[in-house]
Amino acid sequence: MLGEILRFLLEIVFSLLGAALLARAWLYAIKLHPFNPMSQAIHKATNWLVQPLRSIVPSGKGFDGASLVSAYLIAVVFLSLLWLAATGSVPGPKLIPSLLGAALVTVARWALNLIVWLTLIHAVLSWINPLAPIMPVLRTLTAPLLEPIKRIMPNLGGLDLSALVLLVLAQVALMILNRISFSLLGI
Known about the structure:
Layout: H1 2-30, H2 37-54, H3 65-87, H4 96-128, H5 135-152, H6 162-185
Helix pairs in contact: 1-2, 1-3, 1-4, 2-3, 3-4, 4-5, 4-6, 5-6
């Protein structure tokens, strides 16, 4: 039971940190103003890891390499700690390629979880309080994902199901990635 609790706590802490790092990269890509409160909070929470990598990992046009590399490194640490908690030993050299591949899948899982949560919050707030101060940020973040779905979906009048379609697609992708991630390491 203690192992399950430790695994749960590791999952929560590292998923939040990974999502914050990916959100930072996403905010950089969409060029959200740095004085936005959401942007400032994410930067303050992740600067300790991203800033030291800025001098090593370049950032390009719409691409925040330091944040993405930071998310990947956090995924490697996370999976190493999961392995340590499950087996009581540090991953050996034979496991390193699997660990690195599983870390890439874990970052993709975190990205999909971020998409799910932002889409859910956006959808719920659009019904409850469409004039909430966070709505412009949520629209900016989710628009690149929802617009292609809206173009494909048939026109149902005033009913927009693009968020539901995105959520279903993200959940299916999450199921597949979860299976791949844990089968790579055998956890």
